[in-house]
Design a protein that fits this description.
single chain; globular; binds zinc ion; about 65% helix; mainly alpha
Length: about 100
C-alpha cells in the first residue's frame, strides 16, 4: 500500500532493496552506491530497511548474536526468517 515514492529519486525502491545486500557489502560501483545512499536519505521505508539489514549483517557476522538487545534480536530474527535464513539451522548444518 505504499507505492508513493518521492519524485526525483534516481532509483525505485525495488531496485534499492534488490541491491541492498551488495550495498551493505560495499560491492557496488561508486555511482550506484551513491544513488542508493541518496535514495535512503529520501525514502524512509528503504532507510529503515537498510537499518535492519545492517543490523542483521553485523549480527550474522558475529555468529547470530547472542548478545544483542532483545528488541534488536527479535527484529533480526523476524528479518532473518523473512530472508529465509535460519540461524540455528545454519550452525547445525555442517555436512
Ligand atoms: Zn525507497
Amino acid at each position: 500500500m505504499s507505492e508513493t515514492s518521492q519524485s526525483g529519486s534516481p532509483c525505485a525502491c525495488d531496485d534499492v532493496l534488490a541491491d541492498m545486500d551488495s550495498y551493505l557489502d560495499k560491492e557496488l560501483a561508486d555511482d550506484r552506491a551513491a544513488a542508493i545512499r541518496q535514495h535512503l536519505l529520501d525514502c524512509s521505508s528503504c532507510a529503515s530497511e537498510y537499518k535492519v539489514e545492517h543490523e542483521v549483517k553485523i549480527l550474522v557476522a558475529r555468529g547470530c548474536a547472542q548478545h544483542a538487545p532483545p528488541q534488536v534480536h527479535a527484529r533480526v530474527r523476524a528479518r532473518l526468517r523473512f530472508l529465509g535464513v535460519n540461524c540455528s539451522d545454519r550452525e547445525i548444518r555442517e555436512d
